[in-house]
Design goal:
Helix content: 25-40%
CATH class of the largest domain: Alpha Beta
Largest sheet: 7 strands, mixed
Number of strands: 31
Strand order of the largest sheet: 19-22-23-27-26-25-24
Structural class: alpha+beta
CATH architecture of the largest domain: 3-Layer(bba) Sandwich
Shape: elongated
Number of helices: 19
Radius of gyration: 35 Å
Length: 672
């Protein structure tokens, strides 16, 4: 934002040296980019952060200067005199897309004389880098740079039927803008139209057909509010960026729409003559500004800033910034409501930040002792850390994705059945407006994006909340879940899940049972149980889903809840001495019915092997040649060990025969 020192002095007295002014502004958050002398005036280039659109006008910067130096702020009254004829008698405004343009104010001035602007206006515009054009256009630019509200002026007589329709662009429509380039429009763009055609791209650029010229006699002044997301999307699609789009993208104060309209009219009447028609036409409701009160506890100031500031000074700073005190302040606290131009002030810490920057960060002693409070990891933190350790050691990368997804992405994985999701209706979230019930869809999309960049078999995991319950009578829950997406086999991922459970609690037992999830390949999905209770799902994604995402490789996924793990957390791992005697291993290869699960086979082996059993390990599963239809082969390794002696081959063989016999009798297994 480039501000003119002369122009700024109109609103607040600048009786301080320029260097002191820029230093104070820099320390308060408006960083100085540079100063240049133009026509004897100083052009001050300030960096304005995205949360401070109020400083994208001279009045906003002047307000900051006034608070920093204790100077009163003078804002023009914008008083106008009108004729007897009413604006509504000559024009009308209709908004067909209130989600893109919620408010529109139109005023008409008849009998203007278009010509060069007075030197005081032209000089100020040149100082801030704007080339003067004519008195009408220059004043719309002047008011924009004065208060931060974009405006546009139409040649009223060139509007078909002298009316304004704010609507979405129609398929195939184009417009010749005032830069005399033709732009194709799409149906997600907002246009300002007359009775027939678009005459401006809403909030972006006006059209050539209604631009102000030397022959213009009657003017319609537009002051409107446009949805930031719509402006951002349109500007990027058309590669049209301007001072107006920059401000609309960051949000304007709709409470100043009428002031900006009056101010523009006042200046046009003063420089161009004419008669202002009575009463503006206002389409869309301009809502009352009713912010929630924010409570400020004075003891929190020293806790966050490390210095003590008197409550009286805190109240002065906040009221000078435009905040309104609610009730009487006590020695302990005070309550404030933010002005309409400071929508970023919603929390106590926001108010403390304002106090700190106006009081001066340079006044905070460098050697001040700030108390340090030791933070003890919560059980949730410990579980997350252990999970991350296991997964990163296994070659996984943590992903962080948005909680909002599109309907198409939501349907990629629905293990909870057809439960309707929570959704929002807002112009900033048109496409991805559903709160996810699973993290898997987001990770699948991330895996696809990795493949498109040439990174295949990306092993991804994410720990985040999901959002359940869509019916008003249902309690809304936000369980934290862990999701994994990989190209590894079902068995490999199953072993990793065991490792996660054992990292949290060495005695935890993970089992699986078949489950019907629409997105799992037939016979390749399981419900996971932790100590016999539902824990999550694991399975191989069906090819129809991976084809929909254009994924090259097969994908296996898992999603488990964190709460059961947190409940089982062993903060101090239990020590077990290393075995003193070697183990002996025996491999088995069984052919079983396709309906027999690994969990059933594992359970029979564990029961029948006796006290010498040291562990059962899955090796492989096979279907295909040499295996009859409806059958499958499991390969497993059984380990035997004694805690007090070295086992003999005969002892192990006896136990192994018992295992084989039990599997044959109870599961109908045939040893290969």
């Amino acid at each position: 934002m480039i501000v003119s020192q002369t122009w700024l002095n109109e609103y607040v007295s600048l009786d301080m040296p320029l260097g002191e002014l820029t230093d104070k502004l820099t320390m308060s958050g408006l960083n100085l980019e540079g100063v240049e002398v133009v026509d004897g005036d100083s052009a001050i280039d300030l960096e304005v952060t995205s949360n401070r659109p109020d400083c994208l006008g001279h009045i906003g910067v002047a307000r900051e200067v006034g608070v920093l130096f204790g100077q009163p702020l003078t804002i023009p009254e914008a008083d106008v005199s009108t004729g007897a004829e009413k604006t509504a008698d000559v024009t009308s405004v209709e908004i067909e897309c209130p989600d893109l343009c919620p408010q529109y104010v139109a005023r008409v001035i008849k009998g203007v004389t278009v010509g060069p602007s007075p030197e005081w206006i032209a000089s100020r515009l040149r100082t801030v880098g704007i080339t003067p054009i004519n008195n009408i256009v220059d004043i719309t630019n002047y008011v924009l740079l004065e208060c931060g509200q974009p405006l546009h002026a139409f040649d009223f007589d060139k509007l078909k039927e002298n009316r304004i329709v704010v609507r979405r662009a129609r398929e195939g429509e184009t417009i010749e803008a005032i830069d005399h380039k033709t732009y194709p429009l799409t149906t997600d763009m907002c246009v300002i139209a007359d009775a027939e055609n678009p005459v401006a791209i809403g909030g972006v650029m006006g059209g050539a057909s209604t631009e102000i010229s030397d022959r213009t006699q009657n003017v319609l002044i537009e002051v409107a509010n446009f949805a930031p997301l719509s402006i951002r999307g349109t500007a990027r699609k058309l590669s049209l960026f301007s001072d107006s789009t920059y401000r609309f993208e960051r949000g304007v104060d709709e409470q100043q729409l009428l002031w900006a309209s009056n101010r523009c009219s006042e200046l046009i009447l003063a420089t161009s003559g004419g008669i202002l028609l009575d009463e503006p036409v206002i389409a869309g409701e301009i809502p009352q500004w009713e912010p929630d009160a924010v409570i400020l506890r004075f003891d929190q100031i020293s806790r966050l800033l490390g210095i003590n500031i008197l409550p009286k000074e805190c109240v002065r700073i906040l009221t000078d910034l435009g905040m309104t005190a609610v009730g009487e302040a006590s020695d302990e606290m005070a309550a404030f409501t933010a002005p309409s131009w400071r929508r970023d002030l919603t929390r106590e810490c926001d108010l403390i930040e304002e106090i700190g920057r106006i009081h001066g960060y340079d006044r905070v002693p460098e050697d001040i002792d700030i108390p340090v409070v030791a933070i003890i990891d919560t059980p949730r933190d410990v579980v997350r850390d252990r999970i991350s350790d296991v997964l990163t050691a296994a070659g996984y990368h943590e992903a962080v994705t948005m909680s909002f997804v599109s309907r198409e992405a939501f349907d990629l994985f629905t293990p909870r059945g057809d439960a309707e999701p929570l959704s929002v209706e807002h112009s900033s979230r048109k496409h991805e407006n559903i709160l996810r019930q699973s993290l898997v869809p987001s990770l699948l999309v991330s895996r696809r994006d990795n493949e498109r960049q040439g990174t295949f078999n990306a092993r991804l995991f994410e720990i985040a909340n999901v959002y359940l319950a869509a019916k008003p009578e249902d309690p809304k829950t936000q369980p934290t879940v862990l999701s994994l997406v990989t190209g590894d086999s079902f068995a490999t991922l199953r072993g990793l899940v065991d490792a996660i459970a054992h990292a949290v609690n060495g005695s935890a037992t993970v089992t699986a049972q078949s489950v019907d999830v629409a997105q799992f390949a037939a016979g390749r999905g399981a419900e996971l149980l932790l100590n016999g209770e539902h824990w999550g799902w694991l399975g191989e994604i069906d090819r129809s889903v991976t084809d929909q995402l254009d994924l090259r490789d097969a994908v296996t996924v898992c999603e488990i809840e964190l709460a059961p793990l947190i409940a089982l957390l062993e903060r101090t791992p239990q020590y077990e001495s290393l075995p003193q005697y070697p183990s002996m291993h025996r491999d088995l290869n069984f052919v079983l019915d396709d309906s027999v699960t690994w969990q059933e086979l594992e359970r029979i082996v564990q029961i029948s092997a006796g006290p010498l059993l040291d562990g059962v390990s899955f090796v492989d599963q096979y279907r295909g040649k040499q295996i009859p239809t409806g059958k499958k082969s499991y390969v497993l390794t059984v380990a035997y060990r004694s805690p007090d002696r070295t086992l003999t081959s005969e002892e192990v063989d006896t136990a192994q025969k018992t295992v084989v016999a039990a599997c044959e009798q109870q599961l109908g297994a045939v040893q290969r």
